[in-house]
Design a protein that fits this description.
The protein is built from one helix and 29 strands. It has about 400 residues and is mainly β. The N terminus is likely disordered.
Length: about 400
């Protein structure tokens, strides 16, 4: 197998003595076949990493950091709902980056850490779904969780070409139901689909799932753009028209596999998910933990809940604001498609403190947000007077740039 030998220090023992240091040119790599172990550390014969005494595996193939193409796979960021349960409408987001699809309303609820079960070791959060009825699926019904992965984060997989790379999906699943569950990976155009299955054999027990998907050499896949590079869909119940057979790439858009367990068809059934990872290669590596701040910034490319941002503007009458705005803390994927106000803004003009309870017209780029206010909720100000927001004003601006 091939490993990289540091041309300066080589491979060192625990005491720091170089064991291998024959290469003074760091850019020159060699093939090592005679080294199978160094103390208690062994080089695996699979070509995928280094095995340690506790049986953990350090991947050495293509590792450059940021292996995981999924954002918020550990379900730790929940800017919209702060852990509250929601009965989602179709397309509504639960925890960050994870949206809910429902062809029929009110068939399940979703919540970060629903049911308050103990997550798998190493995780503190999960996304929980609870069925609200014993719904009988129609042929056209679709219920699933999904995440769109941006083209900038998938272009290197070379899908749609002869050089398409295999990918591996891994995650932890927990359900009150047992059997064969399903999902799909599709292109952004929803014209190519790969169906996968996985088994949960013990109810109410966390099960670790790994699925390897061959790269798709056909179809239309976007390159390095801010569109959707691929979709991951986790089925919760899909009718026959939205299901396909598992194990191969097929034309068309599908959301689960034929015969998979339908969570929404059992009243009170639960399905929990965490540790979701998609990476290049044919082997699942340990979940890539990122610092909380890093994960939050990655999420904020798509959605931002900004508490009491400092804003300046001008009043164009005693009761209206011509324009207020602020610079976004993180540039968004696209110019925000919606900007909404949560709470009440208190402004200050040097004398009075009128309030704004609703936004008027909004304007956005991927770097800044501005808005007008048609009327103050209370108070007045002088015409054409500069205004600022009070630091103590309790409100938040919700900026959405999701797919």
């Amino acid at each position: 197998m091939s490993i990289i030998i540091d041309g300066n220090s080589g491979i060192s023992s625990a005491g720091g003595t170089p064991i291998v240091n024959t290469n003074t040119n760091p850019s020159s790599l060699g093939t090592v076949t005679s080294i199978t172990s160094i103390g208690n550390v062994s080089v695996t014969g699979t070509g995928y990493g280094i095995a340690y005494p506790d049986a953990s595996l350090q991947n050495t193939v293509g590792y450059t950091g940021f292996r995981n193409r999924i954002i918020n796979g550990a379900m730790v960021i929940d800017q919209r709902n702060a852990g509250a349960v929601i009965t989602p409408t179709n397309g509504q987001y639960s925890v960050d980056r994870w949206a809910c699809y429902l062809s029929q309303a009110s068939k399940y609820t979703v919540q970060q850490n629903a049911g308050s079960v103990t997550p798998p070791v190493g995780f503190s959060n999960y996304l929980g779904v609870t069925s609200s009825s014993a719904y009988v699926l129609l042929s056209t019904d679709l219920f699933f969780l999904y995440q769109a992965v941006e083209g900038f984060n998938t272009y290197d997989l070379a899908f749609g070409t002869a050089n398409a790379k295999s990918i591996t999906l891994s995650f932890w699943a927990y359900s009150s139901l047992t059997g064969i569950f399903g999902g799909t990976i599709t292109n952004g155009a929803y014209s190519r689909s790969y169906g996968f299955t996985y088994s949960i054999s013990s109810a109410n027990t966390w099960t670790y799932i790994t699925i390897t998907v061959p790269g798709d050499t056909s179809g239309s896949w976007i390159g390095a753009t801010n569109g959707s590079g691929l979709y991951l869909r986790i089925g919760l119940g899909c009718g026959t028209s939205g299901s396909l057979s598992a194990g191969s790439w097929q034309p068309g858009g599908y959301s689960s596999v034929t015969g998979a367990v339908s969570v929404v068809s059992t009243n009170g059934a639960t399905f929990y998910l965490t540790g979701v990872q998609i990476e290049a290669g044919k082997t699942a590596t340990p979940f890539e933990y990122r610092q909380f701040g890093t994960e939050l910034v990655l999420c904020q490319r798509y959605f931002q809940n900004i508490t009491s941002p400092a804003m300046t503007g001008v009043a164009n009458s005693a009761t209206t604001v011509a324009r207020m705005g602020f610079t976004l803390p993180v540039p968004t994927r696209v110019a925000a498609t919606s900007v909404t106000l949560n709470g009440t803004i208190t402004i200050y003009d040097g004398t009075s403190t009128p309030t704004i309870a609703a936004l008027g017209a909004t304007y956005a780029s991927n770097a800044a947000v501005q808005f007008d206010s048609a009327a103050f909720a209370s108070g007045t100000t002088a015409t054409n007077r500069p205004i600022v927001t009070l630091v103590a004003s309790a409100f938040s601006i919700l900026v959405n740039a999701e797919f």
